[in-house]
Design goal:
The chain is an alpha+beta fold and 431 residues long. It contains 18 helices and ten strands.
C-alpha cells in the first residue's frame, strides 16, 4: 500500500491531518519534498485491539528514507469496538504514555538513575495521541527502523529472552512499589485500574464471559482425550467452576494489597520487540499497554512464563526465572531508595506464587488457542465481533466455534502446550 506525496491512506481525515502536522513540524524541508509510503505495521493475528500502520517518509531528491513512524488506530467496526471496549482500551494506553510513563521517568531521574542506560526505558517513544471517540490513535517511533524485531510467536523463546523480560518487568514493578512508598498520592489514581475483562464479563449476556467458557471447554476436551491421572482429574475438578470466577479470584485487589502494582497485563511475545546482537536478545521494548491492571506482580510473571515458554525450558530454568525477577526487583527498589523487605518481602512473593500461580493456568486456557494458531488461520476480527454481538442481542446460545481458532494443523501444538501447563501447575503445587 503506497500513495502520492501528500494524500493519506489512513482511514480517517483526522489521522492524516495529525500526521501531516507532525511531519511539517519535524522535517527539515517542506512536505512537498517528501513521498509518504503507507503499509501495514503488523501481520494478521499480531494485534487484536488496534490497527497498525507503518509510514515511511522518503526524501524525493536524495531517494532515501529519512524517518518512519508507526500509527496505532482504533478499529472502525462498531461490533468490534463494542466487544473489545475499544475506547476504554485506548484511553488506558494513552494514559500510560501521557501520564504514567513520564512519572516513572521523572522518578528514576530524581533518584540519579541513568534511565536510558540502566533504568526502565522499555517502552517506545510516543509523540502524539488522539483520545476522541471513535478516532483514537497513538503515533510512535518505528522500533523496527531502530533494529528491534518481533519474535515469531510460533517459535520457542530462549532462556535469554525470558531473563530479559523478567528483569524488565522487575524494574517496572519496582518503580510503582517505590512511588507508592515515597509519594503515594502521585500514583493513587492508578491503584483502581481494574482488569479489562472483569468489566466485560460482568455485563448481561456477556460474549466475553461465554468466550472464556468456550476456551475452558476446549481445554477440557483436550484433557478428556488424555489418559486419566492425578493431573487430568485435578483439572476436571477445578474446571467444574466457571473460568471467569476462577480468573477473577486471581486479580482480586483485596487479596493482593498492599503488594499490588500496576501490571502490564498483556505480556506475551507479540507485545514485545527485541534488539539482538549475534542472535542474542540484549534489549527489548514492551508494547500495548491497553489492558494494564492493578494486581499482584505475579500475574504478569505467570502470564508471560506459562503462555510463552516450553515445558522443557521451564523444567530447566523456572526457578532461575523467578530468582532473576526477585533479585532484579529488590536491587532496583534499593537503588530507588526504598526497602524491598518492606515493600515486597521474599516470603510474600512466595505466598503470591502459591496464591496466584494458578493464574498461569487460567490465562493459558484463554490465550493458547490464539497463540498457537497459524497466522493464515486467524479469523477476521470484525466478523467474529459481529457474530458475538448478535449472540448477545438475540440471546442465542453462544457458538464456541466462533472463537475456537485452533485448526487441525495446529491442534497438536495447542494440546501439547496446554497439557504441559496443566502438568507444571500441578507439580508446582499451584493447583
Amino acid at each position: 500500500m503506497s500513495n502520492s506525496r501528500r494524500d493519506s491512506n489512513l482511514p480517517n481525515e483526522l489521522y492524516g491531518k495529525t500526521l501531516m502536522e507532525y511531519l511539517q513540524n519535524n522535517l527539515e524541508k517542506p512536505l512537498d519534498n517528501y513521498e509518504l509510503k503507507y503499509g501495514y505495521g503488523s501481520c494478521k493475528g499480531d494485534n487484536y485491539l488496534g490497527i497498525i500502520y507503518r509510514v515511511e517518509v522518503i526524501d524525493i531528491e536524495e531517494n532515501k528514507t529519512v524517518t518512519s513512524l508507526i500509527i496505532k488506530l482504533s478499529p472502525e467496526n462498531k461490533s468490534r469496538r463494542s466487544i473489545t471496549d475499544t475506547h476504554t482500551c485506548f484511553l488506558r494506553e494513552i494514559n500510560f504514555y501521557e501520564h504514567i510513563y513520564p512519572i516513572y521517568e521523572k522518578f528514576q531521574k530524581d533518584k540519579g538513575i541513568d534511565v536510558e542506560k540502566d533504568g526502565f526505558h522499555h517502552a517506545p517513544h510516543c509523540f502524539k495521541t488522539l483520545a476522541e471517540e471513535p478516532y483514537e490513535g497513538l503515533y510512535f517511533e518505528d522500533l523496527k527502523a531502530n533494529g528491534f524485531e518481533m519474535f515469531d510467536r510460533l517459535k520457542e523463546v530462549t532462556k535469554e529472552h525470558v531473563l530479559l523480560v523478567m528483569q524488565t518487568l522487575a524494574k517496572m514493578h519496582a518503580i510503582f512499589f517505590c512511588i507508592k512508598d515515597q509519594n503515594p498520592k502521585e500514583i493513587e489514581p492508578y491503584q483502581n485500574v481494574s482488569d479489562h475483562f472483569v468489566k466485560q464479563c460482568e455485563q448481561e449476556n456477556s460474549p466475553v464471559r461465554a468466550w472464556f467458557e468456550s476456551c475452558k471447554q476446549q481445554a477440557l476436551e483436550m484433557i478428556n482425550k488424555k489418559e486419566c491421572n492425578d493431573v487430568t482429574e485435578k483439572i476436571k475438578s477445578i474446571y467444574k467452576d466457571e473460568l471467569y470466577n476462577l480468573y477473577k479470584e486471581c486479580i482480586n485487589i483485596d487479596d493482593s494489597e498492599p503488594y499490588a502494582v500496576l501490571c502490564h497485563g498483556d505480556c506475551w511475545n507479540n507485545n514485545i520487540m527485541y534488539h539482538n546482537e549475534n542472535g542474542v536478545p540484549t534489549d527489548l521494548r514492551l508494547l500495548d499497554f491497553q489492558i494494564m491492571r492493578h494486581a499482584s506482580p505475579v500475574t504478569d510473571l505467570m502470564y508471560y512464563i506459562f503462555s510463552n515458554t516450553s515445558k522443557a525450558l521451564r523444567d530447566k530454568f523456572y526457578q532461575e526465572f523467578l530468582d532473576t525477577y526477585y533479585s532484579s526487583l529488590s536491587s532496583f527498589i534499593i537503588r530507588l531508595g526504598s526497602d524491598p523487605n518492606k515493600l515486597y518481602p521474599h516470603e510474600i512473593f512466595n505466598d503470591h506464587l502459591k496464591k496466584f500461580g494458578k493464574f498461569g493456568l487460567y490465562i493459558s486456557t484463554i490465550v493458547l488457542p490464539i497463540f498457537t494458531t497459524d497466522v493464515n488461520d486467524m479469523p477476521d476480527m470484525d466478523e467474529v465481533s459481529e457474530k458475538l454481538v448478535k449472540s448477545r442481542s438475540t440471546g442465542e446460545e453462544f457458538e464456541p466455534s466462533v472463537t475456537n481458532y485452533t485448526s487441525s494443523k495446529t491442534y497438536d501444538a495447542y494440546s501439547e502446550r496446554m497439557m504441559d501447563v496443566c502438568v507444571d501447575m500441578y507439580n508446582l503445587g499451584y493447583i
